[in-house]
Design a protein that fits this description.
Mean pLDDT: 81
CATH superfamily: monomeric porin ompg
Number of helices: 1
Shape: globular
CATH topology: Porin
CATH class: Mainly Beta
CATH architecture: Beta Barrel
Low-confidence stretches: 1-19, 179-183
Number of domains: 1
Radius of gyration: 19 Å
Length: about 280
Amino acid sequence: MCCFRYLVLLFVAGNAVAVGDGALVGGGIESDSENGLNLALVGGYGLTDKTWFTGGLASSSAELGTGRDLDNLYADLELDHWFEPLGIRVGGVYWGNSDILESRDARFSLYWRGDRAAFATDFERRDFDLTIPGTDFSPGRRLAFDADGLGATLRFDIGDRADIRVSGMKYDYSVPFRPVEDSDVIGLISASRLSLINSLVDHRARITLGLDHGEKRWEIEAATSEGAIVRIRRKSYTLRLLLPMTDRSDIELGLGFDESEVFGEVTFFSVFLYFYDSD
């Protein structure tokens, strides 16, 4: 869910640039073949043509390996200001479920944006509370730890109708995870791609090719990540199509495929609607 929301908000921020000092609101749904479900609301408001607020709220439901459903909450708020050509973006995020895993994050980006390219250096501080349920053979335990993330994002045009975006992030955790000792955490892993445990990553990377065809926009994306506690490598491939509905609204359709060493292969589908109001 973390990566999914991150992409949605990147989209919102990108359109906030186009809207200028107007506003953008959107919402949608994503479901997958393992009964995972995500509902999200996103929005952006331009105070000026160089200063924007963006935010999102999402709720997801995923099935744990034990067969029990788990509901998760995601909320974030970011402020972006472009000094031309440099800019900064700061934000805060809450994500998780108080019964198992909670994450409170602070984000900061310093970026440069030109006519045909943009580059950002991304910093992230994450504070976690993880509760491992007790069993008949072992007591429950609660872990508090944090992680510092450092990454980068590069976007550049290739011709007038295509662009490429590449991004990656590496995390340094305050505790040394030992997969053998922490093997009971495997019970928190879901067959759904929306599992809480998928937020605890050692590193992640993605590459996206965007193609403009008239008023339509296609995006083809490949992403990979590796877990920090249980060393699960996950790969994801997504195809998205953005279509205009009116001169002030768009619809975005997404179809994707996830594969993991633990929960196997999962397909997912999403539909989002966006509405714009510019001055």
